[in-house]
Amino acid sequence: MTAQLIDGVALSRDIRAQVGQRAAAMAAAGRRPGLAVILVGDDPASAVYVRNKVKACEEHGLHSVLERYDASLSEAALLARVAALNADPSIHGILVQMPLPPHIDAHKVIEAIATAKDVDGFSVHSAGCLMAGLPGLRPATPYGCMQLIDSTGRSLRGQHAVVIGRSNTVGKPMALLLLQAHATVTVCHSATPDLSVHTRQADVVVVAVGRRDTLRADMVKPGAVVIDVGMNRNDAGKLCGDVDFPAVREALGSNGWITPVPGGVGPMTITMLLVNTLQAAEATP
Ligand code: NAP
């Protein structure tokens, strides 16, 4: 018997339906939650991401604005656009799609977004709130991973969770969210000598590396929950995650849980962006 699938598409559908209802209730009271997305340059993957984000807003009753600029846009001009959106009362969330062209300081741009509108949760303020256990906007991908784990019905209290990857946008906030949920957390990265020493003991493994087959069948404990954040292409050009999915699913056995790629973390990331935009709008006086 293989592990049960954690269906990110179905979970997204449920959460997005609730978002739609809350957005409609706000609109009925005369206010529509609004998200502004800024894309600089013509990276094809980024263009797809922003289109999907804007489309998801439109489908669920959120107002959205997509601003596209040439890669030659100056840092000063981008900061001026962020300042204008900070002051725009119809916009409750601002997202600047990464990566930015090399002449623009991404950190400076993220810090320029008003704290209340930081729906990506990437600013130092949002990261600080997460670290201090204070309310705030959480980065969408790890926030979505938490919902996926929650949907299995497993409590994280006292569980050993292993996160592979320590980026500011996924690995580190993921570890903090797991810690907040009372898991015992181990964070692994490229200098970890042997990942399997940690993963074989884990009740929950979150893999956010960006390299396929990072987690293999001999690295997991039967009955564990595996969340695959990675987005890679296999030899046939098909989208795949960081986990050797068929073999790991088999090794986890019938008490285990696993997210597929596609259809796991990806749809949840956009869903939690909608949730954050709604939360930001509801918090606006
Ligand atoms: P990132 O910034 O490149 O971070 C990758 C992390 O993996 C780093 O901490 C790195 O360690 C670690 N790592 C690299 N090689 C390793 C190895 N051999 N063993 C253990 N750790 C290793 O990437 P990211 O932004 O966190 O994203 C990770 C993956 O998730 C990518 O495939 C990305 O496309 C995907 N992603 C998906 C979504 C989604 O919505 N589905 C959202 C965000 C990201 P060091 O720190 O030591 O370099």
Specify the biggest β-sheet: 6 strands, parallel
Name the assembly state.
single chain
CATH architecture of the largest domain: 3-Layer(aba) Sandwich
- Cα shape: globular
- Beta content: 15-25%
CATH superfamily of the largest domain: NAD(P)-binding Rossmann-like Domain
* Class per helix and strand makeup: alpha/beta
Q: Return the CATH class of the largest domain.
A: Alpha Beta
Commentary on this structure:
41% of the residues lie in helices and 15% in strands. It is of the alpha/beta class and 285 residues long. It folds into two domains: 31-115, Leucine Dehydrogenase, chain A, domain 1 (Rossmann fold); 139-265, Rossmann fold, CATH 3.40.50.720. Strands 1-11-8-7-5-6 form a six-stranded parallel β-sheet, with helices on both faces. A three-stranded parallel β-sheet has the order 3-2-4, with helices on both faces. The chain has helices spanning 8-28, 44-59, 75-86, 106-112, 124-132, 140-150, 171-180, 195-199, 245-252, 265-283, and strands at 4-5, 34-40, 63-69, 93-96, 160-164, 184-188, 204-207, 225-228, 232-233, 239-240, 257-258. Bound molecules: NADP nicotinamide-adenine-dinucleotide phosphate (NAP). NADP nicotinamide-adenine-dinucleotide phosphate binds next to helix 10.
